[in-house]
């Protein structure tokens, strides 16, 4: 099964911040992401800083329940 979910810029910036605090594996599990997806987002954030994810989807993904950041 292919996951075609699109996440907004804020989600892609907040998820790596969460992983900084609790680990990539734990954050990915809590957010319902694959750990390699979150690792990729961390790499992009490190390389591009505040310019990361410009042009990303504007479609919102619900952050309730399993996908909650806090």
Can you put this structure into words, describing what you see?
- The protein is mainly alpha-helical.
- It is built from 3 helices and no strands.
- The longest helix has 14 residues, at 9-22.
- The radius of gyration is 11 Å and the shape is globular.
Q: In terms of topology, how is this protein built?
A:
Blueprint: H1 9-22, H2 24-31, H3 35-48
Instruction: Quickly give the structural class.
Output: mainly alpha
Largest sheet: none
Overall pLDDT: 81
The rough form would be described as globular
DSSP helix fraction: 40-55%
Number of helices: 3
Distance between the termini: 28 Å
| Gyration radius from CA atoms, angstroms | 11 Å
Number of strands: 0
Sheet-strand content, in percent, reads: under 5%
Q: Return the string of H and E elements.
A: HHH
Overview features:
single chain; 70 residues; mainly alpha; globular
Question: Quick recap of the structure?
Answer:
With 70 residues, this protein is mainly α. Helices cover 51% and strands 0% of the residues.
């Amino acid at each position: 099964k292919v996951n075609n979910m699109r996440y907004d810029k804020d989600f892609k910036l907040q998820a790596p911040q969460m992983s900084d605090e609790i680990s990539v594996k734990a954050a990915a599990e809590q957010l319902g992401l694959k750990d390699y997806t979150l690792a990729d987002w961390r790499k992009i954030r490190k390389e591009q800083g505040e310019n990361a994810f410009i042009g990303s989807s504007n479609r919102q993904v619900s952050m309730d329940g399993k996908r909650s950041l806090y």
